[in-house]
What does this fold into?
Amino acid sequence: MKNHPKKSSRALVCLASMLFLFFVGLMELRAGPGSANREAPGVAVVQEEATVPTTAQVEAPVPTTAHVEVPVSQTAQQHQAPDSVAAHFFRQIDQLHDLVMRHPELRALQSSAEAARAGIEAAGTFRDPELRIRKDLNPMGDGTGLSTYSVSVMQPLPWFGTYQTEIEKEAGVAAVAEQRWEVAARERREEVALVWLEITNHTHQKTMLRESLERLEELIRLSRVRYEAGRQSRTDLLRLEMERETAKQQIVTLERATETLMATLVQLAGGGHGNDQPFPTPMAQELPEPELSALLAQLNLLDLPDLLAQPDLPNLLVPNKTVPLTTDSLMAWIRTHHPVLQIPRLQRDVLESESRRVHLQSLPSFGVGVELMGRNAGVMGMFPDSGEQWAGMISVRMPVYRSVWRAKQEQIRRESQSLGYREQQLERTIAETVTQLLTEWKRRKEDREFYAGELLPRLNETVAILKEEYRSDRVAIDEILTLERERFRYLHEQQEAVIDQYRVLFRLQALLERQLAWDH
It folds into this structure.
């Protein structure tokens, strides 16, 4: 009887502990995962929006501030895929360039250049000798047989240095023909690269439209549930279905445009006459932003001269040095290597060789020969005891009328002056093009960063919030559709900015590329 109170008190303590633990477990159960959504609804919206497939830049926007620290492993993982996409894209461009080199136009220019090169061998050779045969019709001797005939051979010789000048002229003509092939090859390669870039762009646009269709399908399913539950009219569902059909039609339009571009590509590659070209398959991935430093490294142009760097034009940071990309620094290379500017210079060299040749032709020329006379030919008939006679001959041609040579020299001088003015105009045009390309590169780079870092992240968050409010009947479907259209427009403008950067890249490559070479 004495231990009964102690046992009762221990039982009460155990019972109270069990009730307390049960109460705590019940509170934790009621405050489960759903409490996080009630305490931070914005987090739930972002997590739901992250499940919607978007492009890589929308899923992981590049931070625009300089104070965001990203782990090294994460950085390597983000850049591995874009690098591989860019490398695969440029491999496709190289494959298309190999097809371009078989274009009939380039083949024709190549044959012309080779023909001009073969003409060098014909220049600088001796002129054909002159053969003269004379018969004495009234011989002084008996006049029988071949004794009344005389045969002479004369080899004409121009002034000293004329042959070498002709060789230099023909070599200049061949060099001009090779530069014309170079210009045509660069133009065709640039056109093919731009056409393939547009095809790749259309393919990626179809990918973006299909992603928009997936987002519309999600809204259609939500709207259909609300309509079947009697929470809205059928108008919202019809609006969404119209938007879906419009997106499908846009995909069809892009496919037709791609077919047209492929036909253009076939013509640029020299096909269209029964020759099937093994074209690569266009990529549907989003192209990463190109780097001009990679282009300079590929062309071995990292040692471009630093001339008059301008602060409003982009500078490239490469390992252990800074390469300023300015109009002056690029023109220093283009002025020396671009075939468009080389052609008028080579043509002036040809005119200089022609001027020297005309001058040498205005000087006396010579002739050296030998004559064999029969014993009754001419005066030899006065000496009946003499036999055949050999005689050496030298002739001199003296140009007398100088007006012809002066007119030719004046014509050559005027043509050379015209080529000089043409070269100046071409150089100014190319310099203006380079300035526009560098400015366009900088502008489109800023546009891409603006869409990727500023507009798209805010718009995605806004769309996610409106979807939650639409589920709660607090907003109309029109607001979501308007933002979805804006989102697609932003994505399209962002990709167009990148595509424009690739256009600048290919045009700069055509201007900076080193000498091409054909297969002999």
In short: The two ends are 120 Å apart (CA to CA).
